[in-house]
Structure formats: C-alpha cells, structure tokens
C-alpha cells in the first residue's frame, strides 16, 4: 500500500507543479501584454476628451476581473494540494479519520466555489468587453466537470463519515 501511496504522492506533486507553472506563465503573459498595451494607450490618449475617465475605469475593471480569475486559478490549485494530506493519512493507516472527511469537504467547497466564482467573473468580463457570452457553452467546457466532482467529494466525505461511525461501532462491540 505504501508503494501505491508514494506513486500517488509523486503524481500529485507533478500535477501541482504543472498547474503552478501554467498559472505563473499566464500571469507573466498577462502582465507583459497588458503593460505594453497600457503604455501605448497612455501615450496616444487625449486626456481632455469626454469619456477618458470611463475608458480608464473600464480598463481597470478589466484588470481587476483578470486578477480575480488568476486568484480563482490559484485557489483551485490550493484545492488540489489537499490531496497530499489525504494521501499522508492513508499512508499512515487512518483511512476514516476526521481529517480526511474535512479535506474531502474542503476540496468539494473549493471546486464548487471556483466554478461559481469564475462564472460570475466571466459574466462581468462580458459586460465590460461587450463580447458574446453563452452560458451553456461555458457550462459545457470546464464547469461541467468541476461541479459534479465537487459534489462527488461531498458524497465521499459523507461516505467516509458513515464508514468511520460504523468502524467505531464495530470497535466497541469487539
């Protein structure tokens, strides 16, 4: 069992490092391209024209929403990091511990809140950019995966809680 757990721990670390590298790459690309666009815009913008302030507010709103999207990506990575202590508990033989139940619920919370948070931010982004937003297409992409997985972790937490209670009862009768 220990060998299988070690393989899963290594696999989890590889996934976490990969996800962090993607997030850092996205952040650097966003910062470089947005900073260049912002510099070009400030050079050519006429600050005395009507709507200068509103364009500035829209641009900063866009930056804030993008920062929010990066936050949610980081939060999702944080959710994946909970697999490591779960594997540690399993490796130590505590299959039905309170920690595992708590971590499964946290992972479910994170997956569902990520999905809702990103969906809300994408709606705001559509309003600001005046682009097309199709709720069903968004739900078909990454969201159809994370909401059921989040609920599955809630169900797993409940199953593990019931199993812990049954195990405690069996330990008392012996």
Automatic annotation (TrEMBL):
Instruction: List the transmembrane segments.
Output: 7-24, 60-87, 107-128, 143-160
Alphabetical UniProt keywords: Membrane, Transmembrane, Transmembrane helix
InterPro entries, per database record: DUF2975
Output the superkingdom of the source species.
Bacteria
Q: Name one Pfam family in it.
A: DUF2975
Q: What is this protein called?
A: DUF2975 domain-containing protein
* Organism this protein belongs to: Pseudalgibacter alginicilyticus
The organism's taxonomy opens as: Bacteria, Pseudomonadati, Bacteroidota, Flavobacteriia, Flavobacteriales
């Amino acid at each position: 069992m220990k060998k299988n757990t070690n393989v899963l721990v290594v696999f989890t670390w590889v996934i976490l490092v990969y996800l962090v590298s993607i997030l850092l790459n996205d952040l650097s690309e966003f910062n470089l391209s947005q900073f260049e666009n912002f510099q070009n815009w400030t050079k050519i913008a006429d600050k005395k024209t009507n709507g200068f302030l509103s364009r500035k507010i829209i641009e900063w709103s866009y930056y804030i929403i993008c920062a929010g999207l990066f936050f949610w990506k980081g939060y999702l990575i944080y959710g994946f990091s909970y697999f490591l202590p779960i594997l540690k508990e399993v490796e130590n033989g505590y299959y039905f511990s309170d920690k595992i139940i708590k971590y499964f619920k946290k992972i479910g919370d994170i997956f569902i809140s990520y999905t809702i948070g990103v969906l809300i931010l994408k709606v705001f982004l559509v309003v600001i950019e005046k682009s097309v937003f199709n709720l069903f297409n968004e739900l078909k992409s990454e969201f159809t995966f994370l909401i059921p997985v989040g609920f599955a972790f809630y169900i797993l937490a409940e199953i593990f809680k019931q199993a812990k209670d049954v195990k405690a009862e069996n330990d008392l009768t012996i």
